[in-house]
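[Q] Does anyone have a clean structure-token version of this?
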Amino acid sequence: MQRSQHRLPRFRRDPESAGALQLTKRDIDLLCHAAEHRFITSDWLVKLAGGSSQQILRRLNLLYHHGYLDRPRSQLDYYHEGGSRRLVYALASRGAGRLRRDLDMPFNRMSWVSSKSQVGRVYLKHAVMISSFMSALEVECSKRSNVRLIYGSHSFSAEGGQGRPRAPQWCVDLPGRRRVSVVPDKIFSIEIQMPDGKLKKLHYLLEADMGTMPINRNGMAQSSILRKATAYGTLTNNQFATYFGSHDRPAIVIVTNGKMRARHIASSLGSKFRTRLLVTDHDARESSSDWLGLLLPSSLLGPSESNLNSRHSP
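[A] Here you go.
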């Protein structure tokens, strides 16, 4: 049990002062969430796990000090600047080994941080933006008996570097004989059970925009939101089918910060592409907890329920 009279360091492990740890089922669930999201804040881990907030924060503390979870040191900037004090967690190599041993989870289903990994502040903020979107969506889906969220990482067939699942990388030829590659920030599907019992599955490619990439440039020689969207629109149905097992084209979801930028992106891209494009302001949408309202037509949604569905696709 953690010794309350001793304040544990936030970014240096002290397992002896933290006290003994015996892993529970909830601990394994927390490790699974970290494995899926790579970098995720403590408040979203609390919401995904359910139960007592204080108890889950206590378990996260123990999992960090015993080497199952990691806390990227780049978040120290937030403390120096007086920002949010929510800790960001990631799966550590010991946690990955435990998931492999206990759940026989393949390493290509995990995303973990090695002890030597150095994660930059900008990259961390981008990753947390992605995980907050997906976590909010997962919580919403869990409240509906006819909706299931399926993470695309469960279909990855190869491993990337430093314990990262490798997302599909698609190459396309754009006007001007320029070949570019696109790698989505996240891939997921939503499965809806229709009133007649049939299952309808919709696919999505997520792009998290931090506001640093220009929306448009003169030509396709340099990166821009327009070039990325054009590349997705150029992909063939067969290229998508190789990954999704379906010729249905996925929707492109662009999540950004700020209503004005979201409107600018939407107006600049317009309806030029045959791929369905959804653009929204992350902060406004998160505060309203209405991600499904963005992604799905209201006719496909049944009543919200408090009972939980399974979190992941097998």
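[Q] Thanks! Anything notable?
[A] Residues 1-5, 155-165, 306-314 have pLDDT under 50 and may be disordered.
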